[in-house]
Structures
1.
Amino acid sequence: MKKLLRELEEMVVDAWPAPESEELDGWLLRRSGGPSRRGNSVATLSAGDELTLEQRIAKAETWYGLHAQAAVFQVGPCAAPKELEQALIAAGYRKQAETALATAAPAQVAASTQRFLATRVDEKPSEAWLQIAVGQSRFAGTETVFRGFLQRLGSRARFFTAYDEQGVPAAACMGIASEDRLGIYAMITLPTARGKGAARSLLHTLAEGALREQMRELYLLVECENLVARSLYARCGFQDVYKYHYRAL
């Protein structure tokens, strides 16, 4: 199980490449700008022995401070060293955005969903996709940051859009390939389209695409407090594997 957790955590870090990063004795300091916690936090999967924990935290705080940002730490089951969580709590870092990583077999998701709305898959982000994925998301004010992220992903990204009966874009999400897994990111349904099967249509199309590409697993990240989304994903075959959170002052 420990090997699997490590593999999954490394995959999640790799799936969201930051434009600026620096290694700190095993940690990875990431800076992207914009609202992404993942792209603006410390990945703590490894820790060398060159620095004490106190020195390590202080250096991370200094690095982010030089960029006028507060240090934020991503803490999951493989966070190192093992004393990190308690050290952050003692220093006043508060827990934020507890998130679950859930996985499912593509065949199970395909069997548990159906295409209620018309869907489209593109190799490049269409204007319809950007209209929802950027215009209706927390990246609305930082589109340049998001476009830079998409450029860094390159051919690893697949762009999924669902359309209502009038042919109007209703929902969008992104698939990010990581060897034989396909991650589901940036799932957004417009308020006017909710309850009409848009998300399930996208999941069905994602699962079909994963099967065509011979991907063995789908995965997604969902904040634990988003009970509606978690219930939907569970009904579609996804099961939690682990949880992680952030610590910020």
2.
Amino acid sequence: MNSIEPALRPRDYKSDAHPVWCPGCGDFGVLNALTKTFAAEQLAPERIALISGIGCSSRLPAYANAYGFHGVHGRALPLATGLAVSRPDLTVIAVSGDGDGFSIGGNHFLHACRRNVDFTWIVMDNAVYGMTKGQASPTTEADWTGSKLTPDGSHLAPLQPLEIALAAGCGFIAREFSGNPNGLSQRISEAIAHPGFAFIQVIAPCITYRPEQMAYKKRVEAGFEPVDDRRRAYTQLLDAGPLTTGLLYRAALPQWQPAPRSDHAVDELDDRFAVAGDA
């Protein structure tokens, strides 16, 4: 962590850009939680890098006073991985939505867990494609009939991100609620401090296309107890509901590091692939 003086406040970490999220969007809570975290840790803005893909949630880097990279659809994790490996002095945080992270970006999710590079991934999960007008997403309930494309429901079992993270080897797994920015801020601080890849699924309601999610505030409950044993973590997941929150699993696992390369690596590749007759 890089302390700076004088002390910065959460609002000092917000940019001048006005968020275009719909009123009541859960993503506001995530932005507030992030800025609270940055202020609590007194992180220098120039030492923070926010990486995103495509979607409502992926607009977040533009609203923060930090470095940001708005990448292509589903590619936030490889971008964040490369940056975290090459610049370990930075606090790297990737932000995604359930479509960006679990659909087109699902394969990167698996391998980010396996590599265990030191950065944090926050997924704002509203179980709907909000930017493209309300279609079912990978985490949408099978019987949800709110989309004209699936008026009888998708009939597909929703993806279980925490179970996938646990199976793929992630060392820090949590679920929080955007309506509790103080609790989420504390969890983000823990994720940043964790030595390795940290995954936080954030229940972030989209009341525009899923107005029934307004009831989440009364239904979300803290229930996970952090463990470092995968079997016990799985058991908790089997007994928990989709709105159970808390830190589920935290374990110190080996981090992937790229092999050191010679300064002449590029020249060696050029020689290897040279075509006869090349100058």
3.
Amino acid sequence: MLAVRDVPRGEAAASALRERTGNAAIDVVELDLASLSSVRGAAEELLAIGAEEAPLRAIVANAGLQVLSTAHASEDGYELTFAVNHLGHFLLVRLLQEALVAPARVLAVSSGTHYGTLRQSWGFPAPRWADPHELARPREGSGRVAYATSKLANLYFTYELARRSDPERLAANAFDPGLMPATGLARDASAFQRFMWDRVLPPLRHVVPGISSTAASGAALARLAVDPALHGVSGRYYAITRDTLSSEASYDGARAEELWAVSEELVGLDTAVRSG
């Protein structure tokens, strides 16, 4: 099942996957993570599909948005990067969590940008953590910093979900796909940055560790979703294929608990869902 914002492009991707794999049961659900109502609608559709056609066994939260400024707002009035990269995924997982059939898996795609170091973040600005209410507020500021901060939020969510879940029933892990040039992530960057992203960096993946292709990172992500050898493995961080440590800051349990509570408030989860 592909959950997509652009349905025609999603249908084209699903068609290509059906042809390549021979699996006719690849469908598309419309999902705009910048709209909490869209997330709720997609969750309802996925729950219906899971009940009638095929059980839900895994969620791969892999959408990532990077814009130039934190002044942009989502449909619900939240800072756009935080809304798409964290809140939308948070709500989707929480709405589907109890319907997942054990042994289930949730994977959140984070990024090495959360480290905030030159070696591990490729010169990307470091995250700046703050009260989640503040992170959710549109304001003047760097979209690149907001992106790195949202990737740290992905880790807080993953580790908190892992702490709250029985790994035999639901395993939650985070994934760093590496630096993947020639993707749409840099579409709002300058012309020079897009040239470097699309033309200069891709050939370097053969010689520079940490630069990856969509095919290689996609295969590594798929393994985390389906490999039986990973049954019960939860609360881990995988940098492409390596099981490694995320940043020291990412293991701050107090921040993770606060983010969880504020996220429930911001997305309007009712008591029944919170206790599920």
